Amino acid sequence: MNRPLEGVTVLDLTRVLAGPFATMMLSDLGARVIKVENPSGGDDSRAFAPMVNGESAYFMSINRGKESVAINLKHPEGKKLLLELVKKVDVLVENFKPGTMEKLGLGYPVLSGVNPRLIYAASSGFGQYGPYSHLPAYDLIIQGMGGLQSITGPDEEHPTKVGSSMADILAGIFTVIGILGALRARDITGQGQMVDVAMLDCLVATLENAIARYVVTGNVPKPAGNDHPSIAPFATFESSDGFVNIAAGNDALWAKLCSVLGMEEFVQDPRFLTNSDRIRNWPELKAAINERTRTRSTAHWVEVLREANVPCGPINTVDKVVSDPHVLARDMIVSLVHPVAGELKVPGVPIKFSKTPGEIKGPAPLLGEHTGKVLGEFLSMGEEEIQELKRQGVLG
Amino acid sequence: MNRPLEGVTVLDLTRVLAGPFATMMLSDLGARVIKVENPSGGDDSRAFAPMVNGESAYFMSINRGKESVAINLKHPEGKKLLLELVKKVDVLVENFKPGTMEKLGLGYPVLSGVNPRLIYAASSGFGQYGPYSHLPAYDLIIQGMGGLQSITGPDEEHPTKVGSSMADILAGIFTVIGILGALRARDITGQGQMVDVAMLDCLVATLENAIARYVVTGNVPKPAGNDHPSIAPFATFESSDGFVNIAAGNDALWAKLCSVLGMEEFVQDPRFLTNSDRIRNWPELKAAINERTRTRSTAHWVEVLREANVPCGPINTVDKVVSDPHVLARDMIVSLVHPVAGELKVPGVPIKFSKTPGEIKGPAPLLGEHTGKVLGEFLSMGEEEIQELKRQGVLG
Signal sequence span per UniProt (chains A, B) (predicted)? Predict the structure, then answer.
């Protein structure tokens, strides 16, 4: 066995982000992922800029290692083909608005009727039930409703969304956990089941100490910029060419930091003796540290603070991240060769298995690239039949 | 079978956040999680404020449903006991700085020697190998180095960390995926393995289109506040009592929005005809929309925009999140009763399985609450022997 999900076949009806991110991870872990796309354009994100030779970089980065079969699910023949495919797979994943699969006549009860072993995973903004389940959801809307935006930002007047689509991504990751859990249950019971993951639920589940703090103290957590609420100095400081993060979490690190910054006199200063003192006089202390850190570059401070074992680091922009020696040493940036777009760098697999490592299987598929191959292999359909269905608009 | 991870036993050496978050999820999914803590104080986060009757709300919220066994791993007898326990479990999870388990004489090669079926999962800031693996890591440092801070914030001058400890949480979640993948591999091969998850890798893997955009265009992504880079209006606006997020992703929604806001004349305005026009004249348009939205409350706008099917939502603070009817309808806030702290509300399980639902098994354990029970059950140790080891400082 080479991959953790070897032998698992996934029918992937997902589009855009949360769903494709989930099935990308399943592919990276060794599952065979067959992406079912509508023949007229496919996954919406195939049209998202920026493009390389007409191919979307966004689409290519999160659909690597999948096969593409173009089937028109609104056509009765298309539905029939999907039901036949469902009989042969282990998992189906979709991230439509709840009710869409039912309208297509392809809801979970129908699919589990033809394959009781099927694991049906649905990822959506608000989930399959609950008063908001019918509402449209975008990452911004969910970051706002889920509390994350209310605790991120420079101050109370500026709640700020996370720069990546974190609600989508968290839903994608939790969907993978749901599928893996359901696969384990099925291995034991022989029965598939439905897995319902909502972006909003995922945000609530990851609010972390914000919920614990609120329910116990009644204080509503607010955006706190880059400052730690209860440890100082533990924040972002300014350098001559950018910023440096410093986390001096105890008195010993505080003393070391003062020594590196050439502000030894602060260690004995009664305003900054203990962590509570430093929190109480934080604006003053922050200004004093910034005055020092602004005199030299980020690279300088990171070098000398690391030598002194004070936890620190730069704020890397994306260009720095993708060329960082540690990131590269851990294969977290991988090159793919796409038949049309050429070479493309994408993030690697963030789980390092010692015996069954994950692997990026290959580039993203062209729309319908594997229609003939998959329908031939799974449903024994011949080339002529497939061509006829393409003429009828059932396949692409 | 009632839970996906029924029958799986986890030895949990984790502390603080990333590791405990992972083992909390394993417990919620049905695994039996035995937390091994040092008898002198246990998990550091037991001391994190705020406290309820001397018990940390933070600790209680992410250690629910676990058992606690207090063993001094620096004592030769403690090491022996751990090795005996390792023989009886499926999974061991730790989030020490790399090298710590080796120094204790409990590295993976030793543990897999006594139990080749063991899955050993290690979660750390930089991972078990690579040039930075020895560096100290905190969430802030990793958010900075992993690029997330560089794309979050109101503008380029103010890169901002995410308000929750997202690097820790992502590492915890990916660790769960690693364990589930390794369990599946073990079910087939009979062999355990090591799973290495680094917070930094997890951030790189979730940078999403920031990497695709940069590698293709060479443009370095910057913090963009709450504005969408390529769709307008798709942003946070001001209301009379706060904010409202509005995502009018196409021309039809734009027209509906104008109608709800009473600014119908904008629809035919050549400055705002198409999405490209609206992006080009965004500062002007944003100001005009804010002028309208500031006249009424968030609740008003959410109500009328939802009626018009324009995607929208409030920025909920944590008090609003924990009392939201949808959040409650999906059991995403659950009450636990702790023997010392009393009732505590914690986030629920964000994966809804139709047949083997997750479940919060119970409150967090007191330090060493299950020492006698677990050592009796797993190692057939008697009460007298346990008391003697407690006297010697081996157990707590």
Answer: none
Nearest by CB: B185 against A178, A333, A356: A356
Domain of A29 in residue numbering reads as 9-206+326-391
Average pLDDT over residues A375-389: 97
Instruction: Give the pLDDT confidence score for residue B295 in this predicted structure.
Output: 98
For residue B40, the domain's CATH number is: 3.40.50.10540
* pLDDT tens-place string over residues A325-370: 999 999 999 999 999 999 999 999 999 999 999 999 999 999 999 9
Residues in chain A within 8 Å Cβ distance of B20 = none
- Confidence (pLDDT) at A295: 98
* Cβ separation A330–B208 shorter than 8 A: no
C-beta of residue B6 within 8 angstroms of C-beta of residue B28: no
Q: Which pLDDT score is estimated for B177?
A: 98
Q: According to the model, what pLDDT value does residue B103 have?
A: 98
Do residue B212 and residue A353 have CB atoms under 8 angstroms apart?
Answer: no
Are A34 and A169 part of one and the same domain? Answer: yes
Q: CA B247, B249, B250, B252: dihedral to nearest 10 degrees?
A: -30
- In the predicted model, is pLDDT for residue A308 greater than 90? yes
Specify the pLDDT at position A1. 84
b/e for A200-223, b at 16 or more Cβ within 10 A? bbbbbbbbbbbbbbbbbeeebbbb
Distance of CA A293 to the CA centre of its chain: 34
Q: Does some domain include residue B2?
A: no
Establish if A226 belongs to a structural domain: no
Same domain flag for B146 and B265: no
Q: Does A49 touch chain B (CB under 8 A)?
A: yes
| Chain A stretch 165-194, residues whose beta carbon is closer than 8 A to a beta carbon of chain B | 165-166, 168-170, 173-178, 180-185, 187-189, 191, 193-194
Q: Are B160 and B223 in contact (CB under 8 A)?
A: yes
Asked if B358 and B42 touch (Cβ cutoff 8 Å), the reply is: no
Complex ipTM: 0.98
Nearest to A322 among B128, B160, B211 (CB): B211
**CATH code (residue A308):** 3.30.1540.10
Cβ atoms < 10 Å from Cβ of A134: 10
Which pLDDT belongs to residue B328?
98
Same domain (yes/no): B182, B88: yes
Whether chain B has a CB inside 8 Å of the CB on A109: the answer is no
Contact B352 A127 (CB under 8 A): yes
Beta pairing partners, B91: B10, B119
Collapse the DSSP code of B379 into the 3-class scheme (helix H, G, I; strand E, B; otherwise coil) and give the result. Answer: helix
Residue whose token pair is 């290692």: A65
Residue A163, classified by CB atoms within 10 Å of its CB into exposed (0-12), middle (13-18) or buried (19+), is buried
- Closest CB to B214 among A153, A159, A319: A319
Q: Are residues A100 and A248 in the same domain?
A: no
Average pLDDT, chain A: 97
Closest CA to A59 of A84, A24, A89, A92: A24
- Mean pLDDT over A191-220 rounds to 96
Catalytic residue among B228, B300, B326, B338: B228
Q: Is residue A3 part of a domain?
A: no
In this prediction, the residues of chain B whose per-residue pLDDT falls under 70 are none
